[in-house]
UniProtKB/TrEMBL annotation:
One Gene Ontology MF term: alcohol dehydrogenase (NAD+) activity
GO CC, any one term: cytosol
PROSITE patterns noted in UniProt: ADH_ZINC
InterPro entries reported in the protein's UniProt record: ADH-like_C, ADH-like_N, ADH_Zn_CS, GroES-like_sf, NAD(P)-bd_dom_sf
Source organism per UniProt: Vitis rotundifolia
Family to which the UniProt record says this protein belongs: Belongs to the zinc-containing alcohol dehydrogenase family.
Name of the featured protein: Alcohol dehydrogenase 1
Amino acid sequence: MMNQNGILVHSIGARWTLPPVFHYKYYPQHLRSSTKRSLRVVKAAMSNTAGQVIKCKAAVSWEAGKPLVIEEVEVAPPQANEVRIKILFTSLCHTDVYFWEAKGQKPAFPRIFGHEAAGVVESVGEGVTDLKPGDTVLPVFTGECKECRHCKSEESNMCDLLRINTDRTVMLSDGKSRFIAKGKPIHHFLGTSTFSEYTVAHIGSVAKIDPAAPLDKVCVLSCGISTGLGAAINVAKPKKGSSVAVFGLGAVGLAAAEGARISGAARIIGVDMNPSRFEQAKKFGVTEFVNPKDHDKPVQEVIAEMTDGGVDRSIECTGSIAAMISAFECVHDGWGVAVLVGVPNRDDSFKTHPMNLLNERTLKGTFFGNFKPRTDLPRLVEKYVNKELDLQLEKFITHEVSFSDINKAFDYMLKGEGLRCIIRMGA
Ligand SMILES: NC(=O)c1ccc[n+]([C@@H]2O[C@H](COP(=O)([O-])OP(=O)(O)OC[C@H]3O[C@@H](n4cnc5c(N)ncnc54)[C@H](O)[C@@H]3O)[C@@H](O)[C@H]2O)c1
Ligand SMILES: [Zn+2]
Ligand SMILES: [Zn+2]
């Protein structure tokens, strides 16, 4: 039977279903007829690659800002507390683009980027008990070891061991890369490196999700959409009837707008320098628009005038330091809360007059919308699948390309066209 994603899931007896990895499309030619064979035969075929180096395709970034090159790479087997994942869908987030451009970020090349994705576990390393081959998973750029003080705290998702680390380009366990292309080790990115048909990740950076979830949609929950949504519902927490300003109307910002709408905000003011974003943003509940370029005074003053002194909440999703400062200064004194989400340049610093804080404004920041990836992400996916949350992921997916056309996804993002571009692996 096909699930809603068009992925084949076979019923084997009353309660068994085969996960999407067994779709004939993602299976070697000689095994395509295996859809009719028993689960035992198919599982045996899966385990053929366990413990071995896999040769597959990956999009390697050899130089900053230069098109990625599809290369044959060797992917080493997972080591202790690691899994090797067959990536089925990935998408491009602006964070990939910053580190690929390496203008305001530390360069590390050659590198395999990618951190928004969905796939299936191919094999597991020593000591792995939580995940098994065939599990449907979302790799996440910030992990959850479940042991440290942060993981044990209800308030934090900043795991001591696996929190986002853009400088780490090797695996934690042995300080080595699991990728080789043209005889050279290739740097990892954010512990995920999903622009590869197979990748290796630490188990703490992998969320096991409902196998019935449509992977070509929920892959965007592995970064951008959860980040924006969580920034609103978990961090900014706007009250019913309140006003919210969202800076940056890309996928992350529009997910924040969705979160504000779901929370019952009455006014959602979208701020962007790209006016083509405004029409699209109406579908996400944004009620008013401000283009800072249309005004000869700072945008925070424009917003203060529109809202009788400032918005109740603001959420910054641009990566621009100027927008971060404006987002803070545009919240109302006494109760306003600003949340920073965008990734700044390495040398940026945040400058505002301390009186802005003394006047009882609050400044916060968040990674991954404060969701704990292994604990909260499976629940979020389940709520989406069961339609318990009014979250329409299709609205965020404006483009789709085959893996061989991955550079087109970069072009769309650089031109500010569309929101998320799904990259189909194996196509
Ligand atoms: N904190 C996290 O966990 C996390 C996770 C994912 C992404 N991010 C960051 O969130 C940001 C948004 O990501 P995205 O994928 O939606 O990017 P995007 O490029 O799709 O959207 C960014 C939008 O911001 C607008 N913009 C840029 N500068 C602006 C300014 N000064 N004022 C107003 N608008 C401005 C752009 O026109 C664009 O529409 C990026 O900085 C990304 O790195 C952070
Ligand atoms: Zn991202
Ligand atoms: Zn931890």
